[in-house]
Amino acid sequence: MGSKNKLKRFKENETFDNVVQPSREELVNDNFQLKGQWRTTFFKNENPLVLELGCGKGEYSVALAKKYPNTNFVGIDIKGARFWRGAKTAIEDNIPNVGFLRTQIELIDLAFAENEVDEIWITFPDPQIKYKRTKHRMTNSQFLKRYKTILKPDGIVNLKTDSEFMHGYTLGLLHGEGHDVLYANHNVYKQEGSPEDVTSVQTFYESQYLEHNKPITYIRFKIK
After folding, report:
1. Distance (Å, whole) CA 68 – CA 43
2. What is the pLDDT of residue 4?
3. Minimal CA–CA distance to 222: which of 177, 189, 188, 192?
4. Domain boundary residue among 46, 70, 105?
5. Is 32 exposed, middle or buried, given 0-12, 13-18 or 19+ CB atoms closer than 10 A?
6. Do residue 99 and residue 131 come from a single domain?
7. Buried b (16+ CB within 10 A) or exposed e, 162-178
8. DSSP three-state, residue 8
9. Which pLDDT does position 1 carry in this prediction?
10. Which of 86, 95, 98, 184 is 20 to 30 A from 122 in CA distance terms?
11. Global pTM?
12. What is the Cα–Cα distance from 65 to 91, expressed in whole angstroms?
């Protein structure tokens, strides 16, 4: 994507009602007005709140929002030029129950209050295979602690990935730390009885993986 194009998208994001872009300072200094107020202030209802972390173009968030009009969805990514697409689609198609938050996933517990979130989706994250990058792996112990803080006590986390490494690493960690693995499958499209939300919604890259017969893995779990 050219820098002109990126700049245009950043500018357009600023005009979208469904995009929120707090500064790092706002979050770190606990001055973020929407923390604890996403339902009442942003969505203006009391419906369940679901996050998609590392949402990319926002395809998953938008598709789920269309499918579940009585649930609120927030796609989160640091790359605003990417989720511009999802935000624009939501406005064009008049989908009021989806918004986008531009921030780092490391700051997630500063953007949402304790027990504010019902469910989290992590879709096709970078597996961060190199040892030096493990601190950025989105299902490591530190991240799980952050998710636990913002999730309701019975909150659910979904991990969908094309990385066998990420799938195996996460399963091992979940079992090792005694979390509740509710469902795990290393090839959801080949397995009968796979959850419908997992197979009926596909990102652009996912459809490409499937064309090349790359297995898509999935884990659904609760953090103890």
Report:
1. 14
2. 79
3. 177
4. 105
5. buried
6. no
7. bbeebbebbbeebeeee
8. helix
9. 61
10. 95
11. 0.94
12. 12
CA distance 198 to 173: 22
Model pLDDT, residue 175: 97
Q: Are strands 180-185 and 217-222 parallel, antiparallel or unpaired?
A: antiparallel
What's the pLDDT tens digit per position in 63-93? 999 999 999 999 999 999 999 999 999 999 9
CA distance 76 to 6: 18
DSSP structural state of residue 149 = H
Q: What is the Cα 213 distance to its own chain's centre?
A: 24
Q: How far apart are the first and last CA of the chain?
A: 41
Q: Are strands 19-20 and 180-185 parallel, antiparallel or unpaired?
A: unpaired
Mark whether 64 and 20 lie in a shared domain.
Answer: yes
* Pairing mode of beta strands 49-53, 117-123: parallel
- Taken in order 222, 152, 120, 144, the sign of the CA dihedral is negative
Residues of the chain with pLDDT under 70: 1, 131
Do 142 and 221 belong together in one domain? yes
Whether residue 80 sits in one domain with residue 34: yes
Q: pLDDT tens-digit profile of 164-199?
A: 999 999 999 999 999 999 999 999 988 777 888 888
Tokens of 22: 């707090």
C-alpha span between 182 and 170 (Å, rounded)? 13
Same domain, 93 and 25: yes
Domain that holds residue 167: 122-224
